[in-house]
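Just curious: can you write whichever protein you like plus the matching structure tokens?

***
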Amino acid sequence: MEGLLVISEFWVYENWRADGHKAKVHQSLCGHCSMGLKESSGENDKWHGPFLKLDDALQAANQTGANVTTCLKCIGKYR
């Protein structure tokens, strides 16, 4: 589609109860993310973002102290 500009932001989903403390980086349009609007309990999890660059999202995820991964659906294996 000519003239269409899609800007992808990145979000970090942090969960400190499910299988230990985890943080997963998603693209904003991922079905698991929906621009950080996917429901969270607020008791065990939190969305961080948006971030314009993947590296910024990864840095924020690492700052949580969690085990960091990227979503295999929207980003794939990173580095």
